[in-house]
Amino acid sequence: MNIFVDSSSVELYGNNGEVCGATQIFPNRSSEGVEVYSLGGKTKATIKYYPLSGIWNNDIKGKSSVLVSLSEEELEKTLGDEFSIYTTTIPTRASQGVTWKFSDPEVLEIVSQDETQTTFKTKKVGSTTLTATSKDAKAKKTADLNVYGKDTSNIIKDLTNFRTTGSWYVKKGAYVGNNEGDGFTVAEQTNSDQKSTYNLEAEANLIDIGSTAGIVLVSQNEDPKKGSIIANVNKNGNYRVFVFTGEFDDNGNPKVKNLIEGTVLKTKDNKYNLKLELKGNHISYWINGELVCDTNQDYYKKGRFGLNVFGGTTEFKNVRFNSTTSIDYTNVEGSGLTFDQTPGNLHAANDSYVVNNGKQKTGVAISDQQIDINKNIYTLEIDSKVLGDWHADNPANGDTVGIVLFSQSDNLFRDGGIVANVNKWGSYSLIAHVKDENGNLKEVNLAGGKVYEAQYNKYKLKVKLEGNRISFWINGELVCDNIQQNYYHTGKLGLIVWNGPSEFKNIIITSDQVTLLK
């Protein structure tokens, strides 16, 4: 290989020109070193390095300095950091090395210095301007340094004694994490009481292009990669809840197991409000107030809480942590349906109901509301969401949401009823579960079809029961118009899912008394 490097590009020629490539680079003037490395196994090479003279005769004459170049001009460091600045005096025939002066000498000190490199150490939180002056005092250059502290006690009251990997510091009321890979800050607080519900909230501002912000829970030690669960989101709204299993592959990379992944609406300002609830082994995760994960995990019972960044810088504000005595709520205040008597596979999550009986299983919750179509006309409206990835080529943890009509008992599949449902791909059906002449339950397909797949798995369901006729709307589209059924006149309403969790909220039920003609 032949490699040519100048002040703005790198060109590579291999196998006598059979392979070639070039790219632009933008180094500072003080970047004059050469480093050779290899990856994967042993490498033997003969390396020759030699300078080439330029064809342009525009070198600066004489040895008087005209410019000082610094490798860094805007620096952000934390208290106790050591860092280096490389210096070059132009022309290179001039005496190299600089003299430093600080606007606030209490902020940092010089650890070591030679003609091309100075190593500093920060001593105090604050700001200072570094001025580098050439040996002949004819050229100067400045750099600005901000030093931040690591004490979070003034901005985070509920989590203490953090242990960090990556760069973490306090800046303008925010806890800032920065790392090219995973960076963690793990507190000493744990979910020690399995009878309590733990809540951790944080406002995350994702600064860099590749930034990802996350919450750490049940970390088994100070290094979450050795065992923990992470709930995160990136700048594009892609989220993931996954497990660091504590195992590592042959290359030393941690093994992970996805619990759920998906997408929420991307924010314009790259700010996401994260909230996580841990109740025993049950995890609920909200992004900007939207429930995106409601699942169980069987990996870890207890562990520490913390924060996570990946691929850049994220600012965390309003970090709040608390625990309360666990209560199994089966009602949402103001909801049109209540589930005190037979909640089945349902639980309340803030302002939503979540129904879940696990993968490849049907989950059912029968409400307390009894209906009688001989007496009333009913309209039921529900905002539903299949929790998980909304892309059709990546199945979620849940796949189907629906409404139960005329359930004859708390056991729909034993005693019968009617189901109006839709799956995440937009296929819908209206099915009656009725008994045959032998008393065995059978399915009768009343209607079916397909609507457009909804973005983010959100389906607004509406059912109208008028006499023995059923009308069914999905996202405002009438898909079943006055479908006749002669099986049931009374029963209960309910919710139904298949293959994992789905959310139901904003439930409204109205009824109008039937007017009998004389």
TrEMBL record:
It comes from the Bacteria. Residues 1-46 form the Glycosyl hydrolase family 32 C-terminal domain. Gene3D superfamilies: 2.60.40.1080, Exo-inulinase, domain 1 (2.60.120.560). InterPro entries: AL/BT2_dom (IPR010496), ConA-like_dom_sf (IPR013320), Glyco_hydro_32_C (IPR013189). Pfam families: 3keto-disac_hyd, Glyco_hydro_32C. Signal peptide: none annotated. Residues 157-321, 448-509 form the 3-keto-alpha-glucoside-1,2-lyase/3-keto-2-hydroxy-glucal hydratase domain. GO terms for molecular function: hydrolase activity. This is DUF1080 domain-containing protein. It comes from Clostridium estertheticum subsp. estertheticum.
